[in-house]
Amino acid sequence: MDRPEEIDAAFEREEPHVGVAVIGLALDHSDPGVILPRIARALCSDSEELRRQGTVALAHDARLHHTVDAECLALLRTRPRGNEADDDLWTFVPHRRLPLWLWRHHLSQHAKWLLWHRWRT
Questions:
Q1: Cα–Cα nearest to 42, from 66, 78, 90
Q2: Residue 27 contacts by C-beta under 8 Å, 6 or more apart in sequence?
Q3: Total-model pTM
Q4: Which of 66, 70, 82, 98 measures 20 to 30 Å from 32, CA to CA?
């Protein structure tokens, strides 16, 4: 799926599998500026399944394009921590572009890892 206008139409028709199409767009389209607004639309849906699929799409976008926008970050903040997007944003997007709440989540995990490895050696 690489045609954003078809995804917009699927949102308008309330297609049951529009979230899968958003994931496909994240995997197939080369412009994050086209992908991220559709991901944001999925992330703010009333459907839990569509929000979950939006989270997966955001993870793919971060992995492939190394970017995220402020709107998707604000919507992601409402999701439970430890999801795919949290981890892929931390891994693939420059940390200076990530918000403090994501730093707090990952730094505590990183500190535990450092303590564990220091203790083992």
A1: 78
A2: 60, 64
A3: 0.87
A4: 82
